[in-house]
Amino acid sequence: MAPLYRVFLLVITLLLMNISAGQAQTEGILISGDFRNSRFSEFVEAVEATTPYHFYYDNADVDTLLINLQVQQQPLELVLRQVLQDTALKFAISRQHEVFITRGRAFLSDLPAGFFERAADTTDAASPEVAVPLLAEEQVRKKASSDIKLYEIGIKSDKTTGKATLAGHLRDAKSGEAIIGASVYIESPLIGTTSDQYGYYALTLPLGRHELKIKGIGIQNTRRLLLLHSDGKLNIDIQEDVRTLKEVLVEAEKDRNVSGLQMGLERLDIRTIKQVPTAFGETDILRVMLTLPGVKSVGEGSTGMNVRGGSTDQNLILFNDATIYNPSHLFGFFSAFNPDIIKSVELYKSAVPARYGGRLSSVLEITTRDGNKKKIAGSGGLGLLTSRLTLEGPLKKDKSSFLIGGRTTYSNWLLRQLPDTDYNQSRASFYDLNAQITHEFNNKNTVYLSGYTSNDKFKLGSDTLYSFSNYSASLKWKHIFHNKLYSVVTGAYSQYSYAISSDKNPVNASEMTFGINQANVQADFNYFPSSKHTIDFGASAILYDVGAGSLQPLGSESLVIPDRLQDERALEGAFYISDRFDISPRLSVSVGLRYSMFQAMGPRQVFTYAPGVPKTEYTVTDTLTYGRGDRFAPYHGPEYRLSARLGLTDNSSVKVSFNRMRQYLHMLSNTTAVSPTDIWKLSDSNIRPQVGDQFALGYYQNFRANTVEFSVEGYTKTMQDFLDYKSAATLFMNHEIERDVVNAEGKAYGVEIMLKKLTGKLNGWVSYTYSRTLVRVNNATFSEIINNGEYYPSNFDKPHDFTMISNYRFSQRFSTSLNFTYSTGRPITLPIAKYYDGDIQRVFYSDRNEYRVPNFYRVDLAMNIEGNHKVRKLAHSSWTLAVYNLTGRKNPYSVYFRSEQGKINGYKLSIFGRPIPTITYNFRF
Amino acid sequence: MRIQDFTKHVCWLLLLLLISACEERYMPNVIVAPNRFLVVSGFINIGEGATTIKLSRAQNLSDDSAPTVESGAIVWVEGDNGATATLEEAIPGTYTYNGSELKGMSKCRLRIRAANKEYASELVTAKKTPPIDSISWKPDDTGLDVFVNTHDPLNQTRYYRWDYDDAWEYLAEYYAELEYVNNEIKRRDADSDEIYRCYQFGKSTNILLNNTLKLSDDRVSEFRLLRIPSVSTKLRSRYSILVRQYAISKEEFEYYDILRKNTESLGTLFDPLPSQLIGNISCLSNPDEIVIGYVGAYSVEQKRIFISRSELPGRWRRPRANCRLDTLDVGDAILYLESGGYLPVAEYIEAGQLQYTISSKSCVDCRVSATNVKPSYW
């Protein structure tokens, strides 16, 4: 309060002076002089000598200021405005001809209009309604945590109409972490935005008084009263909402659904994710993503996502802006992300912003928390198969923080307890580690450093050891130029590699390895030129280096012949610009263009094939050799990103979007899931990039004061040149992979209907999706024709999908959730007969993907029991009891056929074929 | 390391970690359905030799009975010039034509009337197969490669298919001087059955294809037909291979190429996708009926070569047979020989005592696993 008090005294003093001096004439005093190349002190001397003005200033503020000015009979205000332009200095002239030069904010030399009237009304001089002028900016930011105080922003001027930009950070009052995705808005007129991943927001508002409201996931609804004079900053500290179970889904989203321009975006907060029961009691972000409309997977045990009919390699998975290639543990039974460090997950299914590119179907952006900036804290969990621990805290209070988290499994220990020697020689282990440092250098510069590694090893039936690992690191520097412009420069490195080794038979002992590295740099700029426009622009470059495969003998007895596929390198670049234009409160459009470029790089040997015939061993015409630094196979093209929103009423809107994506990297897999035998292949002279177009249309309506949200989204999508496989393609150590793949064209369409209830004792969502995804291979000159050249269902075509996620809160400490999922079975090609061709028995197959495995449904139940809600205690803890697959339905994971005594028998394997109870203990301190 | 292993490991993992995975029989209706599709194999021979077409029926996957042949059908070839040639059913399900009506046909198709339905292949252009230039072979340290060489001076063949029949002398491990007839051991003479030198026969099991699209010249140089390991019994004495060459169409080439790749692995989550193989035969009355097979029209060229052991590297190890000689005195030898599983090999005198060496039947009598009838071309 001390500074406030001083300011108050000053104001009083000024007031008294004002009264004693009466009305002085300042208007008539004009200044003339030649101040070219003169110091500020010289200017002051000259002015003081010829006029009654007297200057008050800090010499340190002005000693570097050089004036270059010639004035003829001009008032002092005008002259000073010119003198001080381009500096942070402000001036104020009192009626007593005193001139105050201050840094940052203008000295308030007059009391606000009506000051005395109000003072007369209230006897309490320290009323919070009283304006608090001349608070240093720093102080405003720190103290901006009161709902009822009036914050004055900017420099008061006579202007009463016009607009100004308000910007700042939203932070958690307790931990100092950025709050992402919260709505910041005023209600009349309705102007709003959402905080970005740094908690930053910028709003252009009319000058004057406003009630700024802030709503978001897991935070208390907050408001700030403000009086906006000109551009300024307001950082807002917000209390966490401790009742974790009440507000399940995002309040930010509830407004965004109808009023936001973005469509096809699913944003889940970690709190929501934690309520969904999973097979092993471990919170799993990818598994929860799969419950959302438009997101599917081929089987239960796989985290590979198929978003709106796209294949699993068409999802860009960003973990703090570093690409992750295999987001799973243990063949996909767990996702590779520790739930304790995650802040939010965003999935773009359509209308992908121009700053993202490189994948056809979706962008999954996973953001971790920054770490507690106020005090050391920790959290963890003990489950049946895994345990995790996270520690976080300040390195320098309020300025920098760290966060480290780790997770591991004790399945190795469990396996060793098994009596059977075959079983107890098996190994299955994994871990993942995260570390993160955030440092705020000053108001304008913040640096985020993040590292991630995950590692899996399993050896089953004591023969083959599979291991795979992800490493990624990213460094981000966020710089705020001014309220209207900020930039983020990101450098990231990602590596994914796997090895399959077998040492049971010393003669065949070998190790196969694969690795992909990518290094990328990216610069993104956000510019808010006015309240109607938001402009994003930037550029990025990615350098890929793929170790496409190497087979090496293991041990001295091994007779395996070493083999190594050629390494592949390529450079991908892109630049983009997009403008979001709010034409009126009802109508807004976003127009974006991304232009991406790709070039493969030597050293490499590439086959050329005879044109007009399929690429086979029989049609090679030439071998081209490229040296180091040679570039070849250039591809480039524009990617259009358009979207528009039309508000129909306050509670309903229609949105439409079109986007084109290009993908230069392909995953080749002989499974339909993501597995550690997948090969990532760069485009080259023989493999063209994939191009996808999506058109989406949606209708959104909120009911019952925005607590119930309804949306219908339809989309159609076409995909060109994505890779399908020729019959009986071989992917393992294949030197000429281009001969086994075909360029397929795909189309997908669907309707997604979702109803969400956000608050109340009963909450959750119900969604139904009808979608088809079809493939066609019909170019006889390039490949064989599949299914007569007609469209056939892709491997993950599941037309009907119904999901219900529901939570019921009995009390603050006890809640349950019940989930139900139904979907059509995935397509399969069945052998339908056997016959003899000459003397050789052959199997006759149905059309590709003509049949389907049985339909899938599952019911899960979970109970959450919280400890008591005392704020001060050593550790907060909770128990989660869950039953996965409550009805014990045997959903097929895989269908296969075996030849047994001359008969070919079909089998289906279900992995979670009975109810699986789990118990997890979670704690935080 | 193979993908099948991967599948197995996944199943292991599931079984181990979850102990709730379970496997169930899965026989959807489409698999249980009879699926007795008509299977047509063979080709229309427009050159020398007979045209042979075999008709059979596909079976249900779980049917372990012998495949059924389609007997009593009427099979004929139609030329675009209106000529027809009817095939006679010599053996049930095998239809043959030996006449000369087919020679010189430029376009033709196969017609079948079976089970009261009409079937027809697409009209195909008859191709004349160029002669085989040579069958060459090259030994290396571990085996022998056999190659085919051919060319078409008219540059019209482009797509080739081959198959082969091979035969080799099969020698018993031990040359028997004695035989056991009517409960006595006696020397073998001219009337005794040949039991040392026999003949075994084989045929191609892989689909052998090549095309010359990438070459300016329609020439196949050293296309490898097969590789015989150095320890194979085929190369112990004398080996012969008869290679048949067919000039096929692009469509037929693609048909066989897919058939070649549709391996035995059956649709699991981890296998590549097989696809339905569409041949060129359809049912005229019911176009949706599935008919398996591709019938082309071409002539056949063939060539036979012989390879003797003496032409092969002497350093090659002999194939190891699981054979042993036992030396027994007369009484014991008779006891063993009476049991039927053994045959006498030679006399052996030790310390003035007559003894016999005997060995198991399969090591002495080549007829156990081969025939002693010498083929006509040998």
Account of the 3D structure:
The complex is a heterodimer of chains A (about 900) and B (about 375). With about 900 residues, chain A is mostly beta strands. Chain A has eleven helices and 57 strands. Chain A folds into three domains: about 80 residues, Phage tail protein beta-alpha-beta fold, CATH 3.55.50; about 100 residues, Carboxypeptidase-like, regulatory domain (Immunoglobulin-like, Sandwich); about 650 residues, Maltoporin, Chain A, CATH 2.40.170. Chain A has a 22-stranded antiparallel barrel. A five-stranded mixed beta sheet of chain A has the order 6-12-11-8-9, with helices on one face. A five-stranded mixed beta sheet of chain A has the order 15-22-23-18-19. In chain A, a hairpin with a 6-residue loop joins β11 and β12. Chain A is globular, with a radius of gyration of 32 Å. Chain B has about 375 residues and is mainly β. Chain B is about 10% helix and about 40% strand. Chain B contains five helices and 26 strands. In chain B, strands 2, 4, 5, 6, 7, 8, 9, 10, 20 and 21 form a ten-stranded mixed beta sheet that branches. In chain B, strands 13, 16, 17, 19 and 23 form a five-stranded antiparallel beta sheet that branches. At the A-B interface, α10, β50, β51, β55 and β56 of A face α1, β1 and α3 of B.
Q: What does the overall shape of chain A look like?
A: globular
Cα gyration radius of chain A (Å) = 32 Å
User: Which blocks of ≥5 consecutive residues of chain A have pLDDT under 50?
Assistant: 1-5, 7-26, 113-143, 243-254
* Beta fraction of chain A: over 45%
Overall domain count of chain A: 3
Oligomer: heterodimer
**Radius of gyration of CA atoms of chain B, rounded to a whole number:** 27 Å
**What percent of residues of chain A adopt helix (DSSP H or I)?**
under 10%
Q: Structural class of chain A, please?
A: mainly beta
Average pLDDT confidence of chain B is 84
Instruction: Choose one word for the global shape of chain B.
Output: globular
Biggest sheet statistics of chain A: 22 strands, antiparallel, barrel
The CATH architecture of the largest domain in chain A:
Beta Barrel
